[in-house]
Amino acid sequence: MVANDDTAQGLHDALTNLIPWDGPVAPRAHLHTDAPALDLSGTWRFQLVDSPHDAPAGFTDPQFDDSDFVDLVVPSSWQMVDPAGNAPFGRPAYLNINYPIPVPASDEDIVVPNENPTGCYRHTFEVGQDFTSAERVLLRFEGVDSFARVWLNGIELGWTKGSRLTSEFDVTSQLRPGRNVLAVAVSQWSDGTFLEDQDMWRMSGIFREVTLLARPYGGIDDLFVHASWDGDAKLLIDGPEGATVTIPELELTTTCNTEVTIPAAQPWTAETLRLYDATVSTDTETVAVRIGFRTVAVDGDVITVNGEKIIFRGVNRHEWHPRTGRTLDEKTMRTDLELMKRHGVNAIRTSHYPPNARFLDLCDEYDVWVLLECDLETHGFEWGGWDGSPTGDRRWYDCLLNRIQRTVERDKNHPAIIGWSMGNESHCGEGIRLMNDWVKERDPSRFTHYEGDYAHAIVDVWTVMYPSMEWVEAVRDRTVMPGAGPAPQTGRERELPFFMCEFAHAMGNGPGELSAYEERCFDPHFHRDRMHGGFVWEWIDHGIDTGRGYAYGGDFGEVLHDSNFVCDGLVMPDRTPSPGLLEFAATMGAVRIEVDSEQLRDGTGITVTNRRDFSDLSDLEFTWQLVDDGEYVQAGVLAVGALAAHHTWTGTVPLPDEISDPMVVVVEAKLTADTLWASAGHVVARTSALLVPEPLPQPCLPASSQPRRDSSGWSLGPARFDRRGRLVTWGTASLVAAVLDLFRAPIDNDRASALARNNIGDAALAAGLDRLVHTTTSVHEDSGDLVVVTRSAAAAARNSMTTTWRWRAVQTDDGREGIHLDLHTDPHGHWPTMLGRIGVTIGLPAQWTTVSWFGLGPTENYPDSQHAAIWGRWDCDVADLQTPYVMPQENGLRQGIHELTIGGSSGGMRITADGSWPAFAIRPWTSQALMNAAHTWELEPDGHTWLTLDAISAPLGSTSCGPMPIMSHRLYAQPVDLSLTLSLV
Ligand code: IPT
């Protein structure tokens, strides 16, 4: 063994010798066995030193006095112990592409720093005769980051690398009856670090389970289940000769290594949960396996399962918990799957490493497609043009093969896994080909994936990251790619199935444009086409809980970091669904309901489309409701029935003969029975449509009062304007005058970053959108109206917006006093900058915190993310209107506002829109304060309730790592009108 001596040199060699491991037994499946197993999780003794050379002398000796050591719970990452507090073992560091340590040049030997945090672990455990009488005993580590050297009772067992891969050491000859002392030295940096450059928090430790496994004489060390379906179920289990296979539910008994056809069995798919509990037994051991019969094939350029094309409505999933990092308990894993299933996610790419083995059992159980990725990323080599990247350097090939072998062998028996991915962002060389060849030989029953196979010479599918809409269209239409895409469509990629292994970067407020991707890449209309959907980047924000909010890169004093790029998920760090996840459910969900209010009276206004690939809709009940401004009118059930996959149903609901107020039709699809992931009644899909009376009732009548001028300004109805024509008093309340607003606190998709293909936010700031100066150029009375003209422009800028505010006293139809505003704004000069909004902002009293509106809600919505919102009457508090994105940014917009009331114990304002329906945001701080805060805990209410009403709002896009929004969605300066009535409440 290279590292068997205790000298510094010996240790150094093992850390960087490009040998994947020394000591572990051949990789094999994780099996659920009745053979004795001892979970070694719990409190261990621990000491952290600066370097492997500083490990306390003799700490591996069973007699060593470890009273200087401290307690540490295993599994855990030592940097996750109180990282925002006194951090006894250092803090995590967030990096995306950059390596956390210096990178060797391609003509150098591999070196890692001497300063190499090393955790010295000791754990004492007892075993009984069930272990000492076994044929063999294995010590299994499921995840140690990144290098572990292991001793039992003072005798070295060897060492291993591959942080998210299992290693099993044979401890038969070192294990003693009774007390045993395990010692492990874990170093953060090794040559493995160069293969593990995933975009995530960098930390280390024994972060997954450690187990002692007794292996009986004549036991079952490994199994390979081949369960296919081609109209009939076929089963072949590679295993010990003569071992008995039983599936009680199918009344089947057979033996390993014999293929049987089972006519009674049903197929497994990610929609039709059909797992069979089986056992495989020898005289001394019984193993439980769950079998799903399915056949994955690449049929021309289409991926099929059981002969049907499948669509990935997928997400990329890292393992994350805001308090325990990459150590996840089963409850958290179940929560992920339940949330995914509830929001229409049907596929997971395990970016960019194999997850905890237990998670894959749950994927079988909950029914999702899994693209299982190897623990491999060498992204930091990109900065040097990939020179020396391990996938093209033969010195590394054994390490690469070791990684893919451990990946496939551990997880090969899961029906949920339908494809193997070689890794992520590691360039492409011979190493990838060797990995792929090995997989195709070992397991030809699944497709292989590697996005970086840009020559399309190796793997079975063609995938891309973050394509533009035009790009996706070109793939779909088989035309030449616009711009400088990775490759023109001239080679083997023309023959391959296509999906987006990453798209719709869910960082901060977003992603927008999901429905545009959905139309192009997920539409079953292209049923036999090669478009297979994709996987949103990513599932969860990797924020770290500090007790007062979430930390991100840079909060722990890292030398290098990538800021909040680690918070780019569809769920918040605490797994609260973000508005982006609700939009995912509404656009990507396989059950589609569309309501066309114009056609309801023709009997065809409601369309239900079953976009599932296998199952009908008999698990759902479709209900409708007619609601009149919050008042329930009528409800019923739609006879959609057992609509088959890829079929459409058309129908309608009965409407009253006349509609006098805006009314809403809401149609919902609900589960009729409990499932593993939701209770009966859970809403799988919901949509609404607005029915408006024609002509629209006029909300107000002209009042007799005229603008009255006095020494300090103007009075008009319940309002006062100062001498510059600014609205400063409402009833008895003082206001911060309404001004034109073009600014939004940059969302992550507006902010320039290494990967963002935009500079929207910087351009907006350079143009001074956040610091417009508003100058009144005229105030006068015109036929009973107070007409105010303002010019809004930024210091140094020559371009401006001229706004005419035409105010008139009115009475509402229910007799309340008010004023009507007709606003028109016009750009002057050259406006190259994209705007955040074109609207007005006004400062209301801080005591006004109760909000009620008729429009789209209750969830936040934006022009390119509004499918989850429903028309209706919604009530809440100002605090509830804020979405706490980890990095503060524009949030909380609600569109389509017909009426909005905001008030408190003293007074309030009702705003009704006529003509076009504005959007609103209400916050206890300004957009400027939102921009300036780096964390949620830095936001403090400033003494006003700020109301913004947008005539037009900018889209969200997903430009933080993706294309610019579709041209027609972008918001540029243009003339707009707003027509509102403000009345007293
Ligand atoms: C892509 C990575 O594969 C993923 O891990 C993550 O970093 C994502 O970007 C951004 O959050 S790679 C990028 C160069 C497109």
TrEMBL record:
Coiled-coil parts of chain: none
Domain Beta galactosidase small chain/ residues, every copy: 715-983
Pfam assignment, any one: LacZ_4
Entry GO CC: beta-galactosidase complex
Keyword Hydrolase recorded: yes
UniProt cross-references to Gene3D superfamilies, sorted A to Z: 2.70.98.10, Galactose-binding domain-like, Glycosidases, Immunoglobulins
PANTHER family: BETA-GALACTOSIDASE
Recorded family membership: Belongs to the glycosyl hydrolase 2 family.
Domain of life, per lineage: Bacteria
BP GO terms, sorted: lactose catabolic process
Keywords: Glycosidase, Hydrolase
Gene Ontology terms, MF aspect: beta-galactosidase activity; carbohydrate binding
Annotated protein name in UniProt: beta-galactosidase
InterPro entries found in the cross-reference section: B-gal_small/dom_5 (IPR004199), Bact_Beta-galactosidase (IPR050347), Beta-gal/glucu_dom_sf (IPR036156), Gal_mutarotase_sf_dom (IPR011013), Galactose-bd-like_sf (IPR008979), GH (IPR017853), GH-type_carb-bd (IPR014718), Glyco_hydro_2 (IPR006101)
Annotated EC: 3.2.1.23
